[in-house]
Amino acid sequence: MNAVKWGILSTANIAQTQLIPAIRRAENAEVIAIASRGPKVHAIAENLGIKRAYESYEELLNDQEVEVIYIPLPNNLHKEWVIKAAKAGKHILCEKPAALNEAELEEMITVCNEENVQFMEAFMYQFHPQHMRVKEVIDSGEIGEVKLFKSSHSFYLTDSKGDIRMDAEKGGGAIWDVGCYSVHAMQLILGKEVKSLSFKRIIDSKTTVDVSAFGIVELENGIHGMIDCSFDMTERNEYEIVGTKGTVKVKNAFRPDRLSGNGQITINTLTTERIEQTGGDIYKQEVEYFSDAVRTNGDLTVQHNYSRKNVGVLHAIQQSVITNQQIVLADYVCND
């Protein structure tokens, strides 16, 4: 299989430190171009060993050899550049959250389908094999009937000045940035629809951005969820599923790459406890998965549906923290 040729639309830190190195590790991909708004891109391209550097995003989209565009722009710019990339005939991997409401996401998916290009939201954590193992444990009945999903994702943002995650107009805040992982994992692992939710937030007084949020979720089959996310707490990225006979906990659920890819699953029952270790290279596996979908015209409908569910719940969470009310999903209409 010929390597899929990638272009990077932005010199964002995540592109330089995670995606570009991952593309280089991938067996079916190569990065051939990078773009930014201005001349700084040349020094960055030289440092990263990328031959083509463009001083505008439009120039990158006009490069006929580039097949895939990776978009790590601020959240509020995702829709604009996904649509522009699609209309230029490029396949798109877009950083999470892909959209800030359901209407934006549907327009992005619709345009990509019309232009016959692949589109995927970049939740890289899901490609680690530890999550499939968790599903196997649940399906085996070892922990009994699932009753509760708990997830925490936080880090302490030491230098927030000028950080786009602290800019409300750019789609900043802990809910969109890290809470999205817990919501995504809850639906990925359990496969249940959210019925209602109620969340509280702590706001930064200067920026009005949520720096922490805490909430309760009601899902189908009497399952509940407890989620917290924060820019103002020590680093945690974990989830736990509690059943009638035991629990299964994933300690490094969302960023196992920070521990050389090592995943750790702890399974507890009334009589036993064991720890299972599993490895994975989440960014590399994400790149290879998407590149394979590009080459084989793979069906990414499942990924699109997870994105739909995720943005719907996240937007409802935003409404809950603003109104200080419980949101019933069946009655909720996004008016953005």
From TrEMBL:
Pfam families, per database record: GFO_IDH_MocA, GFO_IDH_MocA_C3
Database matches in SUPFAM superfamilies: Glyceraldehyde-3-phosphate dehydrogenase-like, C-terminal domain (SSF55347), NAD(P)-binding Rossmann-fold domains (SSF51735)
Domain Gfo/Idh/MocA-like oxidoreductase N-terminal: 5-122
Domain GFO/IDH/MocA-like oxidoreductase span(s) in chain numbering: 132-248
Keywords: Oxidoreductase
InterPro entries: Gfo/Idh/MocA-like_OxRdtase_N (IPR000683), Gfo/Idh/MocA_domain (IPR050984), GFO_IDH_MocA-like_dom (IPR055170), NAD(P)-bd_dom_sf (IPR036291)
Annotated PANTHER family: OXIDOREDUCTASES, TRANS-1,2-DIHYDROBENZENE-1,2-DIOL DEHYDROGENASE
Family to which this protein belongs: Belongs to the Gfo/Idh/MocA family.
Protein name, entry field: Gfo/Idh/MocA family oxidoreductase
